[in-house]
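In response to reviewer comment 3 from the previous cycle, which asked for concrete evidence that the modeling workflow produces usable outputs, we include below a single protein chain processed end to end. The sequence was submitted unchanged, and the resulting structure tokens are shown without manual editing.
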Amino acid sequence: MLKMIFRRHYFLLYNIYIKLAIVLLFFDLTILSRRYRIETPRYGTQSVIITISMDTKRSTELSRKLLAKQQPGKIKRFRAFIERHRLATILICGVLLIFIGCAAAFYLTYQPPVVQTDHTPIVRKKKTGPTKFYSQLNGIEVADEAAVTKPVTAVMIENSPDSRPQSGLKQAEVVYEAIAEGGITRFLCLYQQHKPGLVGPVRSLRMYYVDWLAPYQASVAHVGGSAAALAEIRNGSYRDIDQFFNGGSYWRARDRYAPHNVYTNFEKLDALNAAKGYKSSQFSGQARADGTASEQPNATSIDINFSGPLYNTHYDYDKASNSYLRSIGGAASNDREEGRIAPSVVIAMRVAETTVREDGWRQSIVTVGSGAAHVFQNGTVAEATWRKGSRAEPLRFFDANGKEIALNRGQTWIGAVANSGGGVAWH
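The workflow returned the following structure tokens.
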């Protein structure tokens, strides 16, 4: 409060202080004039004429004797000291007065310097809504962070005519489709957020499917597999839930004949994963974005040919749902429980294919490296390049400028088409 008053009336108080100092100085000079008989002209010139009486010593002695009779001991000695050192006393008091005045002014006006500890400007964060979380597998918004790291389960599902319609295809979040043998295609279906009540028919594993599932840290449900695939999946680096060793988690349906009748569900698969300690999956999926139907679609009808009429697929773009209605072998491709399959994104990736002699004629596909691809979404097509640097790295797709293509949220269907014998067309 005192500081505030002083700062507000600084010049007024300063003038008062100066005037008081002048008065005090005048008072001191008056005392000196009495002691030394200093005379100053009251008017006229500005010079000062000082005369000192020759009998000063005698008058001083008389004054001291009179004062000694009137003053007590201590006061008398103090007064005598002052009388002897009057000039020095006046000067010392003047200096002290000036010092005290300056100190008071400094205290009342001093403001400590502001110490800046951080040169970074303070930016107030705007209030935002609750944090949103998205699945790394299909890009769909999920409830919380825990849902992002749910364990991923891969299931091998066959695609022979005797296996159709399959169960669990519509709820798969990512589907890889490729030829297994004899021109017959097979699906590697990945699940994390969706848990269908019935999945199958479950069939055997191939090596290139291991390449695709490896980056997802997924457990894989299958019924045996090729020698190379089984050797790789059982080396301890993967989460193997083979039906051969976990028969209680699978069963054979009575309405279909072997080998097209092995089924499972996620009540059993989740329990099996938990029992084996597969409680989460840490991985990085494809880039995702919110899709918007194009006002000028240029790919509303797509044909992806794998091997022949029974396995060639067709997609019709549905602008209302911004998805692709799937057909196979000239008929609608349906999930037995969920109806028409309609992925949000369809990708055809061109691959080098060879045939190897392994337990019969089997296919071998080059999945590590790069190649041409076509990405269909929003009713349009993008000429792209697929890249996969190693088995452990995820499969990604890039445009002509080398920028990764953000895929629409929702189901993604990836078909591996042989460079020789397969084809992709659209209009």
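Residues 36-57, 114-120 have pLDDT under 50 and may be disordered. We consider this sufficient to address the reviewer's concern, and the full set will be provided in the supplementary archive.
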